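Box 4.2: Ligand-aware structure prediction
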Amino acid sequence: MKTAKRNGKAAAGANGSAAEKTTVILCFEPEAGAAGVRRALAALGLGGEPDNRSRWFEPGLLTVRLDAPVPLEIQERLAGLAGVRSVAAMPATHRLVSRAFTREDSAVALGSGALLGDGRLSLIAGPCSVESESQVCEIAEQVKAADAVALRGGVFKPRTSPYSFGGLFERGLEFLVRARERTGLPFVTEALDAEQLDLVARYADMIQIGSRNMSNFPLLFKAGAHSAGKPILLKRGFASTIEEYLDAAEYVLLGRMLAGADHPGLILCERGIRTFETATRYTLDVAAIPILQERSRLPVIADPSHAAGNRKWVPHLAKAAAAAGADGLLIEVHTDPDRAWCDGEQTITPRQLAELMTRIGEIRGQP
Ligand code: PEP
Ligand code: MN
């Protein structure tokens, strides 16, 4: 589907067959008011107030499901209404994340100058959790030597047991900044809830939303809508299907739309799903990599560390993901994995990482 810009307002066309249900996404200016919304609904042939065909995402963004396509003239009329900032319409079977919406891949620029999703395999590596300034700086230097384009490190940790180490919070963010200053590597770290978004966005180059939060829809939307516009790394829920995962990504893109962003700035990460198998912590769904790449225009990376749960299997899964065409890898690395404060069992050493990346370079034909 193509988007047409008119008076600075996006009106998306291409409607498909007459019987096709349609999704319309309307962004309103704050001054649109109830009257502006009524005018827009009337232009769509809907009278009065929004009903159960429509859904508000904070004041400012309204989605509407219709039983028929919306002709281009009506989309253009809508885009021209006072108080309407943008209009997008697409067949209800499509998503904003679909290739059908915009043909091009949506590579994500990282602060290091790297473009994640440009066809090369990008490495993001670092400890599960930030422990100290020296720990994270040393690991940052070592993963950089293995050609990482970004550092990872958690400071707000989602832990199953409430008695497990939960991260260093803001102090950890300061250590990550120190590591960035030392190495030039941008970093990604997790925000566990919407209240942490401001803080994390202030320090981090990319915000991670973890597996356990993939279905936290308000968090997804707010992260996408956040004014800092930081890229988001969204992990697959370990009990979620690919379609549920794509719907989660859609919440982030709706947030982006409200923020007026014209780029998704979103990376997907297959990190293993729960199956009946217990030999590994989760089961890396390798097939999800090409399927997500086909069904979305987003870069798709893989996290072999959380999938394996045991450092012995991490290189095997990493190579499988690389061979399957992953746009990147997210790998837990520590200079002393046995003493890591979190997820040490699945963490590899910098030396193991360097060896692995050499093998992956051979698989991908990438220096
Ligand atoms: C992590 O990356 O440290 C993490 C907690 O990952 P996940 O959300 O995939 O479990
Ligand atoms: Mn971890």
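In the box above, the bound molecule is phosphoenolpyruvate. Confidence is low (pLDDT under 50) at residues 1-16.
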